Amino acid sequence: SSDLNDLRIDLQQMRVLATDDNQPVKLNVVGAYNCAPAQLSGTTQSFAALHDGTTPFGVDFSLMGDGTQIEFSGRMTNPLDFDGVSGHGRISIGDLGKFTRLLGAEARAAISLSLAGAFTRNGDDWLLSEATGKLGGDTVGGKLALHEGARKTSDRLTLALEFPRLDLQRLLAAVRPPAQASQRPDFGSLSLRLDEGNGIVVDGRVRAAEAVFDRLHFADAVLQGRAGPGEIAVDQLAFVFAGGRTAATAAIRAATLASHVVITLDFTGTDVGQLARMLGGATDEIAGRLDGG
Question: Which residue, of 6, 16, 193, 241, has the greatest Cβ tally within 10 A?
Fold first, then answer.
């Protein structure tokens, strides 16, 4: 793991039950993960199958704790290290921010996430593919891949997500402090100061057929970029709005006293009258198309 703080696992009780070496094994483990209570229960193939080692070892387990439940059913070639894994996984997270803190990271994201799909792990690489589920109340599909960096270096999370509809206002409220979550966002007070520590690197592409923010509706929205220690890069932000197409890029890099920010913006075919109506303005004296950049 690449986390700056070592992960801590505490075992309080463990039960392993089997009638003989050739019968399935039942497991029940009670303890804590990074100080959060957790319980693991499941069934595996027999001890004889474990010692054989010539075929992948079958397991079926559920891990519950601190508002999160993880289920897995499949096989692994190295069960003692949870490696060579292939099967079906399901994860249900009540609070995404609390879950990241369990992993030793720090993120504010008071929103639920549930995903289920094909799951594999080989060495430092974890993959959940062909996944479907929900982020908050919005349906989502796609894949997540995690590469574990060497100690004291960054892990890398790569994601590709598709939303039929995405509520941007609910998502923004989830990442704001609780006292501000119900207030209208003040983008002027947004801090651009970046942490230069060894945090996780996120590289991804998110697409929404429809994105909604308050009364505003955006079609065919795409966001592609990456975020990591000391840097945020938006390689593509594009959407259809007010009858036209808007495209933007951005780069934010940590500097000595502040952050260095570069933004480009282009829009073509925007209907000025439609834009005025969306923003609640008068429309009887304004019309036409607007291009700019």
Answer: 241
The tens place of each residue's pLDDT in the chain, 293 residues long, gives 444 445 677 889 999 999 999 999 999 999 988 788 899 999 999 999 999 989 999 999 999 988 899 999 999 999 989 999 999 999 999 988 888 766 666 667 788 999 999 999 999 999 999 999 999 999 999 999 999 888 777 888 899 999 999 999 988 888 766 655 555 555 555 555 556 555 678 899 999 999 999 888 999 999 999 988 878 899 999 999 888 899 999 998 887 676 788 999 998 887 777 766 766 665 566 666 767 76
How far is residue 93's CA from residue 113's CA, in Å, rounded to a whole number?
Answer: 5
Q: Return the closest-CA partner of residue 66 out of 41, 90, 101.
A: 101
Reduced to 3 states (helix: H, G, I; strand: E, B; else coil), residue 16 is strand
DSSP character for 81? G
Closest CA to 265 of 243, 291, 287, 289: 291
> In whole angstroms, what is the distance from residue 142 CA to residue 116 CA?
10
Residue 191, number of CB atoms within 10 A of its CB: 6
* Burial letters 143-155, b for 16+ CB under 10 A, else e: bbbbbbbeeeebb
The residue with tokens 């804590």 is 32
Query: Residues 96, 109: contact at Cβ < 8 Å?
Result: yes
Return d(Cα 133, Cα 116) in angstroms, integer.
6
At 52, which amino acid appears?
Answer: D
* Three-class secondary structure of residue 22 per DSSP: coil
Integer Cα distance of 163 and 155 in angstroms: 25
Do the strands 156-167 and 201-213 form a parallel or antiparallel pair, or are they unpaired? parallel
